[in-house]
Amino acid sequence: MFNIVVKKTILPAYTCVLRGTGCILSALQSLLSVRWAWCPRLENQVQIFSVMQFIVSFLIIGPICSVVMLYLLWTDYWWVTASYTTWLVYDWNTHKQAGRRFSWVRNWTVWTYYRDYFPVRLIKTHNLLPNRNYILGYHPHGIFCFGAFCNFATEANGFSAKFPGITPFVATLAGNFHMPLVREYLMSAGICPVNRATLEFILSCNGTGNAVVITVGGAAESLDCTPGVHCVTLKNRKGFVKLALQQGADLVPVYSFGENDVYKQLILNEGSWWRLIQRRLQKILGFAPCVFQGRGLFSPDTWGLVPFSKPINSVVGKPMEMPKISSPSQEEVNHYHTIGWHNVSPGANYLPSRTLDVTGRSKR
């Protein structure tokens, strides 16, 4: 069922983008050349810094805020930390209950530059009905999930206009919400913890028209991302199917073509000591310690953390309607996982090189 959905919705839409016959409106909306025609190089630098602020926020803002709050306790500004701690105690469950989003954050101009750097496109193939709830299974994870953040945590590609009546929630590590100030920033963009209690609340106690975006492969999938490879971690990931059955939420496939192309990564051999250490750290830390390389901040010919400017086309496929079963058996979970997700195969004609593999290892 799912492979038919992919072949009839996601792949044709992606092919139209490659041929230049589709998504004209999205392309026009992403043009900033008129405004920056006098200085295209400056435009590019603004785009680079907009991407870097996202990477820096992801990597170090949380630890820095934590250290600053601790430091302030030993200064005359101890009351800042005390006040914020009091607020945290009062507001502790908010991020677990659909959060507190602000549309002005999701509409920051910086996100349009972020979008145009790659560029990132959001391709719609079917409507999502406001009277239903959805789980969007996003692949691949890539290194930083650039496509997922741009399309669902911001309005840079006009998600609300393309899917009216649908409120997206991007699920991420729950540990991110334990860091001061970072939790406020994440909630303002519509990001929530990827734990069962939070997802159940959004899908059952928050009305309808909710779309939870889950990167199904998680950190484990990022270990296999490299240019030209389409490898997803899915075979043993069944919790999202069980959740969909329990809540009666429709499953929607989302695939970002190009997500794996923005960084070069050193792929360690399966079974090697380095690979074992990498996977162990991933389980302990919650994220994968990938060894990757991008371009420099001011020059594409040097190494750095800046991703390569490669198009990312995120295709939202056709929803697969799920029955509501309050206590699904393992057999029922396996059944819907198999017919809906296990046999994903986009087809070699549409992919740059290797075919899609759902076992956790790329097909050579």
Note down, in words, how this protein is organized.
The chain crosses the membrane at residues 12-32, 52-74. It is a multi-pass membrane protein. With 364 residues, this protein is an alpha/beta fold. 42% of the residues lie in helices and 13% in strands. The protein has helices at residues 2-19, 24-29, 33-36, 40-72, 78-91, 103-106, 110-117, 146-152, 159-162, 182-188, 196-204, 218-222, 239-247, 273-285, 330-342; strands at 120-124, 134-139, 167-172, 191-193, 210-215, 250-257, 264-265, 292-295, 303-304, 312-316. The strands form 2 sheets. A 7-stranded mixed beta sheet has the order 1-10-6-2-5-3-4, sandwiched between helices. It has a 3-stranded antiparallel beta sheet with strand order 7-8-9, with no helix packed on it. Helix 4 (40-72) packs across helix 5 and helix 4 (40-72) packs across helix 7 (110-117). The radius of gyration is 21 Å and the shape is globular. The two termini are 26 Å apart.
